[in-house]
């Protein structure tokens, strides 16, 4: 479906983008705004919630110390954020649009059509969706060719990865343009050449999440056990090496081949229950109560600050603060 060529669907090349619009300014839209501001862009933002402006500024202010310690682009400032009264004002002069509205298919469909109508021709519009295929979201837009998925990870101002993919009616040039733009804006990009259910990282996370919920539901593990099992175990390795190379090392000098010979048969062992569990009230309450217990009196803001400090330490320790191709 897509070529790997980077062309410029609009009038601006990815390297020359200066103005970005963030539409939907909650956890993710706000995180994107903080990221783009730290990279020196002018950011316009719109969100229909009555308290959206102050909420967004609080989020950006909370992220700014972490971003400052990572290093701001020249000229980067929170003063370059403008919260607009209308969606149309937010995108009128935008050279790239990042949509981060609630995960509801009808809402995304209507919103992307509205964004397409209001955004200058050729400007690429990306959706932060966690899993909807763009093919299903682009059906109401007059020009679906410039609509792509740009799936971030929370918080977008610290976690480098963005997964980029188009829909059946997306122009390959828009996918290539978006991938290059995210790279210039300091992200690590995986570009998919066709739609994959759950993209890549969420498909993997979902498998883990389902198993975790099954274990809580059946009393096999507590919420604390599950979190510890990752933070004190595989999670430490995964920040350095992915699950494939990590397991290759499980084969010693024989590498992955020996690992497969040795442990391949255990793939068939009845360990997993990948059917989604029923998210009934009992399971829901157990997961929420377990997280409250694990927070041990720390507020969400405390936890966010703790997570941000930890992620920065990991990025520093693994030499990933300055990535190749990161020109801002
Ligand atoms: N929370 C997460 O960890 C991640 C979420 N995402 C995706 O990001 C998107 C946004 O999710 P969150 O920020 O978590 O949700 P959120 O609930 O924190 O924020 C959504 C924002 O959208 C606003 N909104 C409501 N109707 C709107 C409309 N018609 N147009 C524009 N904005 C509207 C709301 O007022 C709210 O501020 C979703 O597509 C989600 O799947 C992607 C990666 C991670
Ligand atoms: C919970 N979530 C499915 C919305 C998470 C993501 O989409 C990505 C992330 O931040 O892990």
Question: Which key terms come to mind for this protein?
Answer:
disordered C terminus, 45% helix, binds 1,4-dihydronicotinamide adenine dinucleotide, 8 strands, 6-PGluconate_DH-like_C_sf, binds ligand L46V6VHR, 328 residues, alpha/beta, L-carnitine dehydrogenase, disordered N terminus
Describe the fold and architecture.
The protein is an alpha/beta fold. The protein is built from 13 helices and eight strands. The chain has helices at 27-38, 52-70, 87-91, 105-118, 134-137, 172-184, 201-217, 223-231, 234-238, 243-249, 255-263, 281-295, 300-317; strands spanning 19-23, 42-46, 81-83, 96-99, 125-127, 147-151, 161-166, 188-191. Strands 3-2-1-4-5-6-7-8 form an eight-stranded mixed beta sheet, with helices on both faces. Helix 2 links the parallel strand 2 and strand 3. The longest helix has 19 residues, at 52-70. The protein is globular. The chain starts with 18 loop residues before the first strand and ends in an 11-residue tail after the last helix. Mean pLDDT is 90; it is low at 1-8 and 323-327. The structure holds 1,4-dihydronicotinamide adenine dinucleotide (NAI) and ligand L46V6VHR.
């Amino acid at each position: 479906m897509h070529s790997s060529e980077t062309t410029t669907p609009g009038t601006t090349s990815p390297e020359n983008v200066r103005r970005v619009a963030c539409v939907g300014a909650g956890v993710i839209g706000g995180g994107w705004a903080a990221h783009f501001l730290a990279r020196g862009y002018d950011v316009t933002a719109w969100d229909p919630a009555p308290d959206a402006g102050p909420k967004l500024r609080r989020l950006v202010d909370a992220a700014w110390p972490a971003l400052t310690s990572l290093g701001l682009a020249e000229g980067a400032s929170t003063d370059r954020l403008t919260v607009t009264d209308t969606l149309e004002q937010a995108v009128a002069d935008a050279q790239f649009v990042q949509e981060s509205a609630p995960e509801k298919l009808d809402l995304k469909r209507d919103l992307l059509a509205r964004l397409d109508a209001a955004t200058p021709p050729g400007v690429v519009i990306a959706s932060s969706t966690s899993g909807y295929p763009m093919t299903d979201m682009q059906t109401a837009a007059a020009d679906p060719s410039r609509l792509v998925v740009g799936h971030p990870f929370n918080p977008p101002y610290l976690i480098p990865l963005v997964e980029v993919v188009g829909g059946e009616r997306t122009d390959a040039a828009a996918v290539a343009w978006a991938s290059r733009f995210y790279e210039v804006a300091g992200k690590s990009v995986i570009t998919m050449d066709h739609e994959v259910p759950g993209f890549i990282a969420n498909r993997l996370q979902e498998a883990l999440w389902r198993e975790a919920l099954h274990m809580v539901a059946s009393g096999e593990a507590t919420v604390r056990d599950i979190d510890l099992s990752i933070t004190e175990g595989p999670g430490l390795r995964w920040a350095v090496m992915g699950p494939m190379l990590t397991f290759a090392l499980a084969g010693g000098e024989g590498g992955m081949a020996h690992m497969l010979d040795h442990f391949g048969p255990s793939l068939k062992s009845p360990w997993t229950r990948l059917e989604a569990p029923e998210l009934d009230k009992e399971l829901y309450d157990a997961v929420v109560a377990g997280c409250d217990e694990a927070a041990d009196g720390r507020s969400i803001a405390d936890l966010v600050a703790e997570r941000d400090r930890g992620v920065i330490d990991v990025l520093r320790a693994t030499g990933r603060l300055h990535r190749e191709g990161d020109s801002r």
